[in-house]
Automatic annotation (TrEMBL), chains A, B:
Signal peptide: none annotated. Belongs to the DSD1 family. It comes from Duganella zoogloeoides. The keyword Isomerase applies. The lineage of its organism: Bacteria, Pseudomonadati, Pseudomonadota, Betaproteobacteria, Burkholderiales. The keyword Lyase applies. Residues 252-359 form the D-serine dehydratase-like domain. InterPro entries: Ala_racemase_N (IPR001608), D-amino_acid_metab_enzyme (IPR051466), D-ser_dehydrat-like_dom (IPR026956), D-ser_dehydrat-like_sf (IPR042208), PLP-binding_barrel (IPR029066). Keywords: Isomerase, Lyase. Its EC number is 5.1.1.1. This is Alanine racemase.
Amino acid sequence: MELNLETPALLLDEARMQHNMARMQERMNVLGVAFRPHVKTSKCLEVARRQLALGARGITVSTLKEAEQFFAAGVDDILYAVAIVPNKLDHALRLVRAGLRLTMLVESSAMAAEVARHGREHGVCYDVLIEVDTDGHRSGIAPADPLLLDVAAALTGGARLKGVMTHAGSSYDLHTPEALAAMAEQERSRCVDAAERLRAAGHACEVVSVGSTPTALSARHLDGVTEVRAGVYVFFDLVMAGVGVCETGDIALSVLCTVIGHRPLDGWIITDAGWMAMSRDRGTQKQVRDYGYGMVCDADGNAIAELAFNQANQEHGVLQWTGDIVDLAARYPVGSSLRIVPNHACATGAQHPFYYVLPQEGGVPRKWERFSGW
Amino acid sequence: MELNLETPALLLDEARMQHNMARMQERMNVLGVAFRPHVKTSKCLEVARRQLALGARGITVSTLKEAEQFFAAGVDDILYAVAIVPNKLDHALRLVRAGLRLTMLVESSAMAAEVARHGREHGVCYDVLIEVDTDGHRSGIAPADPLLLDVAAALTGGARLKGVMTHAGSSYDLHTPEALAAMAEQERSRCVDAAERLRAAGHACEVVSVGSTPTALSARHLDGVTEVRAGVYVFFDLVMAGVGVCETGDIALSVLCTVIGHRPLDGWIITDAGWMAMSRDRGTQKQVRDYGYGMVCDADGNAIAELAFNQANQEHGVLQWTGDIVDLAARYPVGSSLRIVPNHACATGAQHPFYYVLPQEGGVPRKWERFSGW
């Protein structure tokens, strides 16, 4: 495929993306839950519109910048899934006053009280979820912790407890269907437990929100859950292939790069995709198959098993030939194209201002903007 | 210091930056060479203007996007220090035709011939340096390689051989003054050797360009060198402190973040600076002192030795308390500020759309834009 792009360039295979979107939405439909995709992966309106068109109900964001950008484009039901802190409340207030149905997250009594105070002071009532810890990997309140009820009690006046939310991020460390199904059940049951404790204490707790790409695709049932969130499934990546929830052939993102030189005695090919184009994410390092800075493919996306992407500088990638001795400069001449499939779609995507959407029937790629920053 | 910023936010200490700039420029003046700073670190006009005001002659860039942005702002002497490939020549041509004195880099006969052909076809004569390999760390032609003269010979018609360029990037792996001085001398002498070979073959070779931050600051003399390039010195970072060419107190960049939660039983503090704010760069991992994802400081920039930044998710940082048992939530309450000094200034900077320049005498930080992408 000859694309006539300046490199490095982030390529998006729309057909694969649509397949990934449909797979997740269908699974959610079968499980009988609402689906609220996490748009931190794409940060792209064109992508989110397609998720919503397939049946997603609202979106999840990782920054208020994302909330602002997607709201400006017409998405009015947004969950900001990082615990809120005081310096972000004025920004949240502006969005709520402009008409956004924003849901915020808390995991401490202090912030629950502060959110309630801020809402009261400004004459609004914020919708709030309590973050629940179901796997010990990061933040949240354990279902049995007395703090859960204290936080709920603090959400009065300018804040309303809407429900509970958890993210079993430790699912990324697993790689068997059994372990993933068990983690999905743990995520579900502990989050439902937290909701039940709150209901027993008199709170309505209408929302029970769970999710990560691996658990969402591994859950056998989601009884008691009202919505699921997942992000990276939309593109997938090598880490997800290592976890076992996709094949490398499902991965919709790659970085187009160009051979800029060779070091024949070392078996090196130098390209113009360094860590600025790939990110420094080495997420496959701890997996069974370590892909270095990404899986090297030819211009059509076919993997070249003998090329290992072991070393990256800012704008240089160094690919190590691991096969039998060949004339690398003849096989991959200066100016020829390669594609690199990323370890982590969220991290690689964040390095680029655009997606170049691969044309399905030839022609020039379309450009879809993505945003960044806070 | 109370800054009233939404977090995470990239802070720039202008006084430290000015000190770093002056130190490098003075050293170059003493060594009697021109200085051409690499602006890939800052990607910021305000920063480059200050480098030029102190005596820099032209700039070095890592992408044609940088060349375009800085040229639009009036910088008209730019070295693009990544070997050129065919898909970038039309872009380079547009810049040259608009009046930019652009110097390009080649390291193969094929590209030398292609650059000359492109220039001839479009009625321009491109200025070209040959990349010389002086330490085996990445790209370039060894001084004694017959290829050096072949490449020079191919630069006729639409291209002109202006000189040679090298970057001793392996200096980043060193950490003693003796080893650094030896590498600086190796970089100098081998690059001068390449120039002499070219001159002996009848080429003028007016430019002999060397540099990396560690070698620039470690060279005892630079006889035969005409210009030095360095980038990260402008801000410095933990990797450079580990190499030994600065103190942590010289580092001008940090990421302001906010405590969003605690996990008391694990000794964890959760912040809103994850890898999106810091980058995934783990450059200190192989150094004597491994800082994880960065050096944790209080809001005034004083290091907190007991807090280790061991774990990062997209918008969450996990800091591990390593000291005696304390009440972490009382000492670092939710909503309180911390600052994280980065491993690698180029990588962390690239995650942010702005620098917030710390006010010298109180008041509100100024915002300096930075650009990204290709």
